[in-house]
Amino acid sequence: MSIRRVPKSSKGEETWKRIYDSAQKLFLNQGYHKTSILAISRDSGVSPATIYQYFESKDNIFEIILESFQEEFFNLIKDALSMRVSLDEKISYMVNSFFDSIWKYKSEFKVYREAEFIDRNLAARFHQILSDSLKNTFPMNNDLYPPVTLWFLIGPLMYIGTFWVLWNETEVPENVREVLKDFYVNGISKGEFKVDLNVYRILDKYSRIEEEPETKGERTRKTLLKSAELLFGRNGFNNTSIHEIVSMSECSVGAFYIYFKSKKDILMTLVDDTNKSLRHFMKICTAEIKDRRNIEIASYMAFLDFFRRHRNIYAIVREAEFVDKKISLEYYEKLQKAYFVPLEISIKNNEIRNMDIKSLAFILMGIGHLLGHSLLILGETSKEDFRKYIDPLSELIFYGLNITEKGRGSIK
User: Fold this and answer.
1) How far apart are the C-alpha atoms of 151 and 270, rounded to whole Å?
2) CB neighbour list of residue 225: distance below 8 Å, 6 or more residues apart
3) What CATH number matches the domain at 197-354, 3.30.420.480, 1.10.20.10, 3.40.470.10, 1.10.357.10?
4) What distance in Å separates the CA atoms of residue 344 and residue 192, rounded to the nearest whole number?
5) How far is it, in rounded angstroms, from Cα 119 to Cα 98?
6) What is the pLDDT of residue 261?
7) Phi/psi at 164 (5° precision)
8) Residue pLDDT, tens place only, 113-151
9) Domain map of the chain by residue range?
């Protein structure tokens, strides 16, 4: 990354800042793809030619904003976890500092979220640096713990921050912060618990959802959806046209409009169908399991296997966040609501500690979100390897960072 011209005068600094601030605002409000150099020029009152004197491209401005967030984020996590205070105080500082920071720097946070999706190499580097940092802070006796601790700690922070700050445009509520702090330190299990080994065998029994017979119209609709899934996953939503979708489906544009109003409508349908299929598959896989703690672990196994077979869809669900946040908000709210009654019952059954179920649902989903991103988008983990990651993760989920001799991954 480079800057074409380093401002040397106060006037140059002022021009540079106007360009930067306009780009930051437009990236926040319109996203990366809908923001152009011309739009930045109009908003800042600076000609495109002058912009190019200071920055190589739109990407260059995007990278500088991203670097600002990354530096802030790394320093925040490093400072929090290196404090010579109790674990409770350390976690409290980290949670409050992170949520306060992303509220203050909403633009940088959104740029990071979008950059993480656009550039997988960037996301992989970011995760590796964080994993290495966590490895030095929370040394565990298992080589798998660096990425596992990343999912446990950073997953909920990112997901909760995105839900409240970017999608609901408000600060993260105090009660949500307190539940997260409690979870990090103490986990969810009420007492000692060992996962039933049959949980890790569910994918041998349930490998796919049985499909019902289809009419000709249903087959056409399904073919269009499959083509959109492949093209959106391969090229992205913005770089895919309706013409390409119908060409791959071998049907007419007229047929497309019988089933879908627009390209955005087929995206919404893909995301909604995915939500229903995912919840159905997870319900089938966990139907015979009793204890909610076993169900949580089985659900992660089912979640990973579902998206292992639908990697494009996982990427599409992520991209929908930048096309229209309402699509993502509806998708995740439906998943969140599915947690409420089961978690309430498990608390009454003394399986899970008495915690706010809405906040706990956010937390568990946040872990799954980053887990899937790491294993399925940044990597291509096989079904046979899921257990070796989820097993140590389950110990953190059950007992938190206060893991004692109960867990084989106890802090050194």
Assistant:
1) 26
2) 266, 269, 270, 273
3) 1.10.357.10
4) 19
5) 23
6) 95
7) -80, -50
8) 877 777 777 777 777 777 777 776 665 656 666 788 889
9) 197-354
Q: Where residue 316 falls among pLDDT bands split at 50, 70, 90?
A: confident
Structure token digits, residue 406 = 């109960």
Give the single-character DSSP code of 34. Answer: T
What is the full DSSP assignment across 216-283?
HHHHHHHHHHHHHHHHHHHH-STT--HHHHHHHHT--HHHHHHH-SSHHHHHHHHHHHHHHHHHHHHH
- How would you label 115-132 residue by residue, b for 16+ Cβ within 10 Å and e otherwise? bbbbbeebbeebbeebbe
Which amino acid belongs to residue 348?
Answer: K
Q: Considering the chain, what percentage of its residues have pLDDT values greater than 70? A: 92
Which tens digit of pLDDT belongs to each residue from 320-338?
888 888 898 899 999 999 9
C-alpha dihedral sign at 312, 28, 168, 162: positive
Q: What is the pLDDT of residue 4?
A: 54
Structure tokens at 313: 């869809």
